[in-house]
Amino acid sequence: MTFLLLLLIAALVVLFAVKDLRMKFITQPVFAFFKRVLPPLSDTEREAMEAGDVWWEGELFRGKPNWETLHAYGKPTLSAEEKEFLDNQVMTALSMIDDFDIVHNRKDLPPELWDYFKKEGFFALIIPKKYGGKAFSAYANSTIVAKLASRSVSAAVTVMVPNSLGPGELLTHYGTKEQKERWLPALANGDEIPCFALTGPEAGSDAGAIPDVGVVKKGEFNGEEVLGIELTWDKRYITLAPVATVLGLAFQMKDPDGLLGDKKHIGITCALIPTSHPGVEIGNRHNPLNMAFMNGTTRGGKVFIPLDWIIGGPQYAGKGWRMLVECLSAGRGISLPALATASGHVTTKTTTAYSYVRKQFGMSIGHFEGVQEALARIIGNTYQLEAARRLTTTGIDLKVKPSVVTAIAKYHMTEMGRAVMDDAMDIQSGKGIQLGPKNYLGHAYMANPISITVEGANILTRSLMIFGQGATRCHPYVLAEMETAGMEDIDAALERFDDLLLGHMGYATRNAFASLFSALTGSRFAQSPVSGDTKRYYQHMGRMSAALAIMTDMAMLILGGELKRREMLSARLGDVLSELYLASATLKLFEDNGRQHDDLPTVHYVMQTRLMKAAKALEDALRNFPLRPVGWLLRALVFPLGNHFNGPSDKLSTQVVEAMLKPGPARDRLTFLCPSFDGDKGGIAEVEEAFLAQYECRSIYKKLRGAQKEGKLKGKGITAVLLSQAVEQGVITQDEHDKLLEADKLRLAAINVDEFSAL
C-alpha cells in the first residue's frame, strides 16, 4: 500500500514537472474548461474593471494580508488651510443654518447661505488652485460635508454635489485646456452652478444602459455649419438641476453616417452644455423625502451642440463610461459616507446626552440594559463609520481609484448610517418623532433612504459590485487568466496559461492549508504586526482572508460565469471582504489615535462584531453552496471545529456605554463632526448643555440618594420639596441646591419637544 502511494506521488510529481506531459494532460484540458465556464464580460464591465485600481482590498482578498502595508498608509490630516476653513467658514455656515426653516418654510437654502457658499468657495473644494479652487484633500472634503450634515442634510447635499461626480471633477481630470479655462474659474467662484445628468427613467443602477442618444451630424452653431451632435435626453433625480447654469450630460453617442470614421456606435460620452442653450429644458422639481436641496428633471429634444463640447474634446468621444467609473469614487467614497458618518456623530452625541438626562423610574434611561444594547450599537457603528471614512479617504488621497473599496464604503456605511438613526429614534422616541426647531434627528432620519438609493442602489451594490469586481480585480491570477483566454494566438495563450495555472494552484493550496491550520489552532500562529489587546484580531482576520480566498476559488471554478447570477452567494462572499475591510479600518484608526486605552471597549465591540458577521457570511455561503460535496469539503477547511465567533457580550456592551455616558476625550473623538457653537438653532447644543450640567451635579445627586436610603429625606425622586428638605437637613448647601435647580431647568428644556398652535 505504501509502495502504491509513493508510486502515485512520483507519478504526480513527474506529471507536473515534465512540461510536455503537464501541457498535454493538465494545462490544455483546464484551459479548455476555463474558456467554457469563463464569465462573459460586457463592454461596460470590462471598462469598469480597467478603470478601477486595486488597493488594500487586494491584500485582504489574497489570503495573507501584509499588515505593515496597512499601517504604512499614514494618518489622514488636515493642512493648515483646510483646518482654518473648517474652524472659520464652516463654523460660520453652521451658525447660519436653521434646518427647520429651510425644510418646512423656505423649501430651499436662504439666499444669504447660497451667497456665502459661493463667495467662500464651498463649491470649489476639488477645483485646482490655479483656477481659483481650494484643491482640498478628500479627507477635508469629507469632513466639511459631514460637519454641515450634522445640522442640515439639505445644506450638506447642496455643497457635496458640485464637489462630487459632476462637471468640476470631470473637467479637472479630463477637460481640454480651453474647457478648463472657460468653466473652472466660474464654477469655483459660484458664477456657474453645475449639475450632472446621468440617471433616467430606464437607466438607474445600470447606468451603462443609458438610452439617451447623441447622433453625429452637421448643424448650425453661431451662424456657421459645423460638425456636432444632435442630442435627445430625458433625465430625472438630478441634484441642483433646478438651479444649474451648466449641465453635464451622459449619453450614447452614435455616428450612423460615418462622419467620424467607421465606428457606428461610439459609446457613452459626456458633454458640457449651458442650460441657456436653445432646446435645453430644465423641468419640474422633485421632492426628495421633503428635503430642501434642489433636485429635478432635465430634457432635450434634438438639441445640437458642437463636438468640442464633449468633455475632453472629440478624442474623448465614447470614453464617458470609463471617465464616470474613475470619478465615482467621490460620491461613493467621500460624499455619501460623510453623510453616514455625520449621522453617527450626531446620534452618539445626542443619544448619550439624552439617555443621561432622560429619567424613568428615578434613573437615567442610559443605565437600563435594553437601552444600553441599542446605545452600544450606535457607539460601535459610529466608531466604525469614522474609521472607514478615514481609511477610504486615505486611499483616494493617495491618488488610487479603489472602485471596490468605495463600493464597500457606499453600501456598508450608508446602511450603518440608517442603523444608527433607527436606534437613536428608538431611544429618544418622542423627542425624535415630533418635528420642530428642537428636533435634531427627524430630517436626517427621513433623508436616510436617499443615500441608500443614489450612486447605485444598495442592493445591487452589495450583490453585484463588491464581489463581482472584487473577485476578478483583486485575485492575483483570475483577471490575467481571463485575458489569456481571449488571446488569438493559441500557442502563446497556452504557454502563458501554463505559468498562471501553476501559480494559481500553489496559491489555492497555500490558502487551503492556511485556512485549515488557523481554524485548528485558533489562529494563534497567524501573523500580527502588534502585540497586546488587538493582536488576536489581526490573527483572526488572516484566517478569514485565507478562507475567503479558497472559497472564492472554488466558487469561480464550480460556477464560472453562472456566479454572476448567483447574487445571494456572491453577496455573502462580498460581505466577508467588506467586513475584513471595515475591521482593517477599525484597527488602523486605533493605531492612528495612539492606541488610546479609553477607546478599547469600543474597539473590542466593533472587532468582535466584524468577525462575527464575516464568519456568519462564510457560514451562510457554505450552507448554500450549490454543489453540496464541495460545500462539505470547504466547511472542513473553514470551520472544522465549528463557528465560534459569537460577537460582543452583554458585559462588553455595558462597558462601551458606561464609558460614553460621561464627558471626555473618548466621547469627543466620536462626536467632533457634530460641533457645539453659539447660536445653534437645532437643539443639539441644548441637550449637550443639559448633559454637562447634569453630569457636574452627579456628586450632589449621590448625596441625595444616600440621604434617601438612610431615611434622612422622605419621598421618591428629586423634587423641589425634597431639595428644600435637603438644605434644611444640611445634606446639601444652598449653592448646591441652586445648581441642581438650574441643571434640572436645562434637563426639562432638553427633553421637551416643540409645540404648535392647532391648525
Short account of what is shown:
Its cofactor is FAD. The chain is α+β, with helices and mostly antiparallel strands.
Describe the protein's topology.
Layout lengths: L1 H16 L1 H19 L5 H9 L4 H6 L5 H5 L8 H16 L3 H8 L4 H9 L18 H12 L3 H8 L6 H8 L2 H12 L5 E4 L15 E9 L2 E16 L6 E9 L10 E10 L6 E5 L9 E12 L13 H8 L1 H29 L1 E2 L2 E2 L4 H29 L5 H26 L1 H4 L8 H12 L4 H17 L3 H8 L4 H32 L13 H25 L7 H26 L7 H24 L4 H11 L11 H11 L4 H5 L14 H13 L1 H13 L9 H9 L5 H18 L8
Parallel strand pairs: 1-4, 2-4
Antiparallel strand pairs: 2-3, 3-7, 4-5, 6-7, 8-9
Helix pairs in contact: 1-2, 2-21, 3-13, 6-9, 9-10, 9-14, 14-15, 14-16, 14-28, 15-16, 15-23, 15-24, 15-26, 16-18, 16-19, 19-23, 20-21, 21-22, 22-23, 22-24, 22-25, 23-24, 24-25, 24-26, 28-31
> What is the rounded distance between the termini?
93 Å
> Low-confidence parts lasting 5 or more residues at pLDDT below 50?
none
**Mean pLDDT metric:** 90
Strand coverage percent = 5-15%
Assign an overall shape.
Answer: flat
Mind summarizing the main beta sheet? 7 strands, mixed
DSSP summary, beta strand count? 9
For the CA atoms, what is the radius of gyration?
29 Å
Number of helices: 31
- Structural class comes to alpha+beta
- Helix percent reads 55-70%
Supply database-style keywords.
31 helices, 7-stranded mixed sheet, 59% helix, 759 residues, 9 strands, alpha+beta, two-stranded antiparallel sheet
